[in-house]
Amino acid sequence: MHRMIGRRRLLEAAGVALAFSPRSALADELLRQGREPQNLATPTGLYDRLITPTPSFFVRSHFGPPALDPNRAVSVEGLVASKLSLSAADLKKTFPAVTVTAVLQCAGNGRALHVPRVPGLQWQHGAVGQATFTGARLRDVLQKAGLGAEHAKGTHVHVLGADAPPKPSTPPFLRSIPIERALDPSTLVAWAMNGEDLTLAHGAPLRLVVPGWAGDHWVKWLVRLAVQKEEAKGFFMETAYRMPTEKVEPGSVVPPEKMRPATTFPIKSIIGAPLDGSRTPKGPQKVVGVAFSGDAPIAKVEVSLDDGKTWRPAKLEGEPGVGRWVVFEYRFEQKEPGRVRALARATDRKGNAQPERAAWNPSGYFWNAWHAVSWEVT
Ligand SMILES: Nc1nc2c(c(=O)[nH]1)N[C@H]1C(S)=C(S)[C@@H](COP(=O)(O)O)O[C@H]1N2
Ligand SMILES: [Mo]
Fold it and tell me: Which residues 6+ apart lie within 8 Å of 146 measured at CB?
């Protein structure tokens, strides 16, 4: 169930004095997702711009944040020549700062839209956002620790955050990424988001940034990076965040050996305006949204006003990139009052096309069907 909560109200609830003035309505709001306050969705109306404002950027935390400690260091260990311990200040001093613009999307975004329904947080569209992230290349950090050529292939970087599970029986949020992905120049140990130090909700002081890959790899509140021979074990690697290796019948049970980690997110577009169920005056109409693919830059977005019989190209804005969104806009004239339904579909430069129906899977990941929005022209 969605409930609107403003950031001011969130802060008030946390007993924080309000020292700033109210901002524009949407840019200051998050939608509560389920019972826990650490899971917050971005309002759909914000998917009309290149950068999602940090105060409205979705939040997904399994256990809630640890205490804020700006000096918390991350250790770099395992199969490296010399163990390092680096705070955000150390990273800023030691490594060139790199800024990437990237989509951060939870694998479970759109889970509520899969048919049949799948248990888990019932995200609709709001578990995604785009921001700029600034930090050190993980590659540079690993090289500084003396990662040898013999360990630069086939190994895995285990990644741990400082957030403690609520009960001793709850498994820690331990993840790993293959070394090849860790050495990709876009993979960062980031200290800033949208030009400011990370907020606690988004992983302060340090988080991993893995453009093109689902949010579960973007570990927050980093405490340990360890190069190991094997993939990490445990619930969050072996059970959660896994996808069928092949297409499966909706509702079916998939055996573990037919599952692989969910990594690159598939192509998708979301219409941010008009909002479903809204009203617009007759005359010029504008369909605006965002489109992204974890696999390749967006090549085109098309809009249909006749349930997919015919499609027209939308105008794109923003620099296309892997795991990076562009804004699309399609204008048309609606002279008569009545109901209008718009569909959007994106295609990337590798020819991946957004499907009419999303591929169902047991955990409800990566819903990416054509987004349909209906509104009343009056
Ligand atoms: N330490 C830690 N890192 C974490 C998580 C977590 O629970 N603990 N949640 C992950 C998941 S599932 C997602 S989708 C992203 C969400 O990042 P955000 O809250 O900054 O939007 O953080 C990831 N990093
Ligand atoms: Mo997630």
Answer: 80, 81, 82
Q: Is the pTM of this model over 0.90?
A: yes
Report the Cα 252 to chain-centroid distance in Å. Answer: 27
State which residues form the domain around 251.
40-261
Residue nearest (by alpha carbon) to ligand 1 atom 9:
61
Domain CATH for 62: 3.90.420.10
Amino acid 37: pLDDT = 62
Q: What was the pLDDT predicted at 377?
A: 98
Per-residue pLDDT tens over the stretch 140-162: 999 999 999 999 999 999 999 99
127 & 219 share domain: yes
Q: CA-CA distance, 188 to 202, in Å (whole number)?
A: 14
CATH code, domain carrying 369: 2.60.40.650
Per-residue H/E/C for 204-243: CCCEEECCCECHHHCCCCEEEEEEECCCCCCHHHHCCCEE
- The residue behind tokens 């360890």 is 226
Amino acid identity at 293? S
| Three-class secondary structure of residue 5 per DSSP | strand
CA-closest residue to ligand 1 atom 21: 59
Nearest-angstrom CA–CA distance, 44 and 125: 7
Looking at the fold, whether 369 and 248 belong to one and the same domain comes out as no
Residues with CB under 5 A from ligand 2 (ion): 60, 106, 215-216
For the chain, residues with pLDDT lower than 50 are 1-4, 7-23
Largest CA distance in the chain: 71
Same domain, residue pair 292 and 315: yes
Residues 243 and 323 in one domain: no
Identify the residue whose C-alpha is closest to ligand 1 atom 18: 59
CA of 228 to the centre of ligand 2 (A): 24
Specify the pLDDT at position 120.
93
